Amino acid sequence: MDDTPQPTKEEILETIIGILKKQKRFKDLKIKEKTHLDRDLKMNATEISEFSRGIEVSFGVLITSNTMVFLRDIESLVFYVHSQILK
To answer: Helix and strand tally (H, E) in the chain?
Structure first.
């Protein structure tokens, strides 16, 4: 069993927002849990794919494209990552 402390939901949220803010066009935006990738950020499929890859690398989780279809806001991404880490 791994004794490494698992990140809290708040830490996951901060990391996910940090991944988004690395992209120049999102750097100065106020991003919250309720921020929607399509509606609020107007992310295209390529941007969403790159973003999900950044989350995968940061947390060591897998987000399939089929799963990503349902993870369209920051809050659902935080919940998903947290649930995958706890497995």
So the answer is: 4, 0
